[in-house]
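ugh ok so i messed up the first submission bc i forgot one of the chains. this is the corrected input, ALL of the components this time, i swear. 731 residues overall. if the numbers dont match what u have on ur side tell me asap before i send this to the collaborators (the ones from the other lab, u know who)
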Amino acid sequence: MIRKLVLALDDRLGAAPFLRHALQKAFPDHWSFMLGEVAAYCFIFILLSGTYLTFFFHPSVQQVVYHGAGVPSLDGRVVSDAYASVLDLSFQTQAGLLIRQAHHWCANLFAAAVVVHMARIFFTGAFRKPREINWLIGLTLLLLVMADGFTGYSLPDDALSGAGLRIAYSIALGIPFLGDWIAYLVFGNSFPSPQFEGRLYAMHILFIPLALAGLITLHVMILWHQKHTQFPGPGKREDNVRGSPLWPTYAVRSTALMLATFGILLFLGGVVEINPIWHYGPYDPWTVASPAQPDWYVGWLDGSLRLGPRWAIYFGHHAISTLFWPGIALPLTFFALLYAWPWIERRLQPDDRYHQLLQFPWQNPLRTSFGVAALSFAGILLLAGSDDIQARLLSVPVQSLAWVYRVALWTLPWVFAALAWRICVELQARHAYADEHPERFVLVRSAEGGYEEGPRLSTE
Amino acid sequence: MAGSVAFAAAFSLGGENQIEGIGLGLAFLGLSAALVVWSTQLLPQTKVEDPQHPLASSAAERADAAARLEDGIDTVIGRRTWLVRLAGTAVAFLGAAALFPIRSWGPSPRGRAGVSDWKAGRRLVREDGSVVRAGDLEIGSALTVFPEGEVGPDKLINMANDAVMLVRAEPAAFELPSARASWTPQGFAGFSKVCTHAGCPVALYRAADQQLMCPCHQSTFDVTKGGTVVFGPANRSLPQLPIAIDADGTLRAAGPLSGFVGPDTWNESTG
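and heres the new structure output, hopefully the right one now
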């Protein structure tokens, strides 16, 4: 049966050589190589769960009267059709709440998987020649995931996400030269407007997923063509890649990972409440939920806005508002540095060779220090994005906390980078010492307190 | 398998979300665990090795590809500069023509930022349209108000920029510039509810120190000093609404909001 199918395919496509080769393809055995796969499986899950949600969601901000047993406290209230349809799909639709919550959890896991995967790629130098193109695609995928997450959680038209959209609208209007146009294309002539919901929806379910699908395909095709990198080790060289064969070993392992990802998301979707819009209430432009936090992957931008300086520049009726620095300049600079890093590193450490073997983070203090600084910078912004909650928990004024974060933002990344550099150099020295002194022995203390030389060991 | 059964049972019994989630989650996790066991215990742990070659092609192939691309460009463009210019002009015209349909996507946001419907004489009403009277508000409390006639589900866009936080403080607590001395009769003070930082509603009123705070980014404004910034990323005061009180206690606006409502934009600002 299978034989017949292979023959039939080969007759028509000449696929046998490819298949034979593909089934034997080597996949390196290291857990960190599976982080990107988690992201890929999140994409599959989010497409499937999202499709289910589109059956029931109404992308319209037309005002309707909510009648539903789901949330008795809102019965009879005028809300948007979008908000009402999310309540209905949560409470009146079979498995609706489960799928909606799992979809939302998946967005959070998706972004996390991409970030952790990229951290692995960065700290091991996997982005080096010939893989710079996939680093650029990966960063673009991260931006798209963030954009899809933001447009997605903004769809229910609740009081929390509505405030987020109002902020996004303000930032868009503040973009020099293009502000009016960008705000107008995304939101219409005002916020709220009759147009924005439909446009967000088109972005969320059509344009961004299409771009994601295209770029993920390209990402994997390039990966397939260039083959995997591998950690240095016995028998691993720059001119080979060793690992388990795709079929059957790796295929089974990867399928297990996919099922585990789905399982955890569905479990979370069932048990752990997320984005309870009936607690926030419907969006009225003069109301807001408090405390107000976005999802984690937008949190660093919210933190950036909280810590932003009061600088504004006026000339004529034009303005570069206070939103420009934390809302536009900072994220653009941050991502520009990440996009440019492969070339910055090559400028600082001239090197035009191919690299199939990875480095351990300690082997390149410069890169590791930059990565640690960038991660801690974003991390401090993320923490600052929930400083009001921390202030409440710690019973300190939020003002003091904001100042702590302002100082920390511009000092701690340097401290962490220096620390990382120091640790890298220390580890390098240790490895160099071990390489020079491959012989080790064990000291054994006798019961009388004397020491004796035990068996000799080698480091490998 | 038990998980699948549990999910099916929960689903058919009318869907208790938690049980559905636990059942379906366990079903997937169980399958996953089985595959892990299978792959580690039952499958042969063979290793394979692929060769890793430099990806660059031979020098001849590279040169040939580049030459073909260059030749093609030369053949198309060559010395025919006027044809190229013509083509460029045609594309530019197409781009310009495309701007016209874009214009039909709706009216421009220009001219809308910073403005509100507040005028002298307009009565203050709640979200539901009911008129606010002096007796309705005790000292130390706050209320969101709109200009009369501009409320309702079809007026959300107006309400977004018109919302005003009406607070009542001890009349003696105010330290306003002399031009605003008459704006807070009986301690009633009105401030635009649209934060001058990013446009969030400045919804938190703390009577203890007479501050208005925006929950989005913690910009904080002093009620007694005319809405000046005391903390946070906002760089401008909240616009203040002058209040007047009729003989029967009805509150009215004594003038428009004192400044540009909401955040500055590139094209429209206080400047």
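quick check: Helices of chain B lie at 2-12, 17-42, 59-76, 81-103, 156-162. that seems consistent at least. Chain B has a mean pLDDT of 90.
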